[in-house]
Design goal:
kinase; single chain; binds (R)-mevalonate; globular; Ribosomal Protein S5, domain 2; alpha+beta; 9 helices; four-stranded antiparallel sheet; Alpha-Beta Plaits; 12 strands
């Protein structure tokens, strides 16, 4: 039996624009998905536990290819099972063991579909644990590559390498098309996260931006401007200039809002963070519903968010410099 864990992530800058070849800077956070895998004679048995943040438990037990016995939203479970099935296929392929069967248990403290990398962390964890269980050691870059193929398949081609690369490698990373690398020398960032309890529909949100971008030149210019923010932000990150990083996060949120992917609850949390003195705040991930990320070295933002209407949970989640690992 092998257990692997992989971190979730926030986007410091660049979500959505990364889909069109602009750079993005996602950062791994200290919230992990833990995946335990044991080989069995054939087939798959999957247990998904506690896949949301505060005690809302998905009890899933069943054949991953059949109908699960579940007591929660089937679409959430189906999404999770789809990712796990494809991740298992990648592990079988890496180990040249097409018929390998597995018992898989997932525990995660990363809310599903909330913009902080739940599916990528689970996929990365499954690939690492299942290959290790089959006696194969693959490095973090190969895990990232295989995890990207999983997201690409499950999300019908609408996936960048950002989430999976960040979860596999850890730390702050830069992704631009197929060029993915760690940004060295960034050891700590004071992230505070606000979660509205909801989930965004990534496919629909990406499609909405694609439509705007093809309809209006100024929407295409907005996507390019996000790329400019990322390039400027990288310089601020390397210089350790937190106040400039915050200013650029605010700007990035404004452009995401203009592209139609924010919402009342996300805007409300962003403003609550800014009012509390955060250096900057923005939505993270696809948007719609889910999470915002703020930069604050004090406790003020976390406290303010915890009293903000529409914010279900506020927590600190520092940069995690470690990516996927065997536990
Ligand atoms: C979703 O976490 C981030 C998006 O940029 C889509 C992607 O990069 O695959 C919206």
């Amino acid at each position: 039996m092998v257990t692997a864990s992989a971190p979730g992530k926030v986007y410091l800058f660049g979500e959505h624009a990364v889909v069109y070849g602009e750079p993005a800077v996602p950062c791994a956070i200290e919230r992990r998905a833990r995946v335990t895998v044991e080989e069995r004679d054939e087939g798959l048995r999957v247990h998904l536990d506690d896949l949301t943040l505060d005690g809302f438990t998905i009890e899933y037990s069943g054949d991953a290819t059949g109908r699960p016995d579940v007591n929660v939203s089937e679409s959430l479970v189906e999404a999770g099972v789809g990712y796990i099935n494809e991740a298992v296929e990648q592990a079988r392929d890496a180990a040249d063991a097409p018929d390998a069967g597995f018992e898989i248990s997932v525990e995660s403290s990363i809310p599903l579909g909330a913009g902080i990398g739940s599916s990528a962390a689970v996929v990365v964890g499954v690939i690492k644990a299942a290959t290790a269980e089959l006696g194969i050691e693959i490095d973090a870059r190969e895990v990232a590559e295989r995890a990207y193929r999983v997201e690409h398949t499950v999300q019908d081609g609408e996936a960048s390498r950002a989430d999976t690369f960040c979860s596999a490698m850890g730390g702050a990373v830069r992704v631009e098309g197929d060029d993915c690398r760690r940004i060295e020398g960034v050891d700590t960032l004071p992230f505070v996260i606000g979660y509205d309890g909801g989930a965004g529909d990534t496919g629909a949100l990406v499609a909405g931006v694609r439509q705007l971008r093809s309809e209006y030149d100024f929407a295409a210019d907005t996507v390019e401007a996000v790329g400019d923010i990322v390039r400027e932000g990288e310089r601020a990150l390397q210089a350790g200039d937190l106040s400039e990083l915050g200013e650029l996060m605010d700007f990035n949120h404004g452009l995401l809002s203009a592209l139609g992917v924010s919402s009342r609850s996300l805007d409300g949390m962003v403003w609550a963070a800014r009012d509390a003195g955060a250096l900057g705040a923005k939505l993270t991930g696809a948007g719609g519903n889910g999470c915002v990320v703020a930069l604050d070295e004090t406790d003020a933002t976390e406290t303010a968010l915890s009293y903000t209407p529409g914010c279900e949970n506020a927590f600190r989640a520092a940069l995690d410099t470690e990516g996927v690992r065997i536990e």
